[in-house]
Amino acid sequence: MNLFAVIILIALVSEFAINILADVLNLRKLKTDLPESLAGYHDQNSYRKSQEYLRVNTRFGWLTSTFSLALILVFWFLGGFNVLDQIIRNYNLGPVSSGVLFIGILVAGKALIFLPFSIYDTFVIEEAFGFNKTSVKVFITDTVKGIVLAVGIGGPLLAVILLFFERTGPYAWIVCWITVVIFMLIMQFLVPSVIMPLFNTFEPIEEGDLKKSLMEYAASIAFPLTHVFRMDGSKRSSKSNAFFTGFGKSKRIVLYDTLIEQHTVPELVGVLAHEMGHFKLNHIKKNLVIAILQSGFMFYILSLCLSRKGLFDAFYMEHVSVYAGLVFFSMLFTPVDFFSHILMNMYSRKNEYEADRFAVITTQDNRSIKEALIKLSVNNLGNLFPHPFYVLLNYSHPPLMDRIYRIEKTIP
Ligand SMILES: [Zn+2]
User: CB 300: neighbour CB atoms within 10 A?
Assistant: First the structure.
């Protein structure tokens, strides 16, 4: 076993073990009693249900991640990558087509193997807790649309990256980086206007109290609000949410129909204020800049690794190729990914506090924002007392109780 193999094996196994440890700590913390302040929102029954939801999801996560790790290790040590490569090489398709086929088969194979897990999650777990609204027909059409998008968008992008690495020598990483940045910018416009409407219906919210209040609030912070949409989130789940997407003319605020049903107008203004806070505080732009820098760093490190024969020996490969290098690099990158994910989550939690603060100050109504957050968490059976270590690894939003504490302290 060479050094690359040792590093990747340790990285995969330790990532798995660290996540299990975080889960165990998180489950232990479930013993906490329902706090007085939430007594009006949760009864003992619904509180117990939220704890059970976490237990069931955690156990299911263990099953999925154990299976996933075992699958990778078995495929790796049985020389699966080389067997697949040899089969594809028999067709003499050239490096780009072979690469798209090689990565395509790995991705499709993994998706197919994990399809039953996704079915179980939707139709058994989410169903048991009363969340699932996805019909079999919607599930199937979602899956088909996902495949079409992956092939239609992911395929050509991958082909272009492989082509550049084959043709542009030492500058390949810069050319690929620029390509991916252009792709990311185009997607900022395409996702809200073209891709998301493939999966959901977006309707401008109708005239009335809600629209009037949202418009008045937007005018008060000089935000040119043109698009507020109601999304039929209830098509898949009774869970609720709201989000902000896009730039320029394509920017829009989306409220799930389930959110509109479950909240009062002042609470919805609070939710909208939080989302606008993200925009006004430039969180969306900053996130895009970070994503751009991250991809540049990744392509640079990738370019350093692609020529290392040891990386290919680690996976028993007879031939060195850019496409296989891409796959192995993604595994070698696991520790960097792991730590950058933690840093990004920390940064995201900081932004969430800032957006909450923005919402409180601009609406001068911390009570409605607090109510909205509590209801959201209670309705979605969120975990009220996650373990700090679990939060460190997994939470892009601060735990509910921490947000409430800060909101109460913020003077409007
Ligand atoms: Zn937010």
Answer: 13
Closest CA to 8 of 310, 304, 317: 310
- How remote is the CA of residue 358 from the centroid of ligand 1, in Å? 11
Distances (CA, A) of 17 to 10, 29, 218, 291: 10, 19, 46, 27
Q: Report pTM.
A: 0.92
CB under 8 A, 24+ apart: contacts of 201-209: 201/231, 201/232, 201/235, 202/229, 202/230, 202/231, 202/252, 202/254, 203/229, 203/230, 204/228, 204/229, 204/230, 205/229, 205/230, 205/255, 205/260, 209/265
* Distance from Cα 183 to the centre of ligand 1, integer Å: 25
User: If we measure between CA atoms, which residue out of 371, 367, 369, 401 comes closest to residue 383?
Assistant: 401
From ligand 1's centre to the CA of 271, what distance in Å? Answer: 9
Look at the chain and count its residues.
412
Chain-centroid distance of CA 389 in Å reads 19
Instruction: Round to whole Å and give the CA distance between 374 and 38.
Output: 8
What is the DSSP code string of 201-223?
-EEEPPSSHHHHHHHHHHHHTT-
pLDDT tens-digit series, residues 150-168: 999 999 999 999 999 999 8
Q: Position of tokens 């040590």?
A: 77
SS3 69: helix
Per-residue pLDDT of 237-272, as tens digits, reads: 999 999 888 777 767 889 999 999 999 999 999 999
- CA of residue 3 to ligand 1 center, whole Å: 42
Active site amino acids: 275, 356
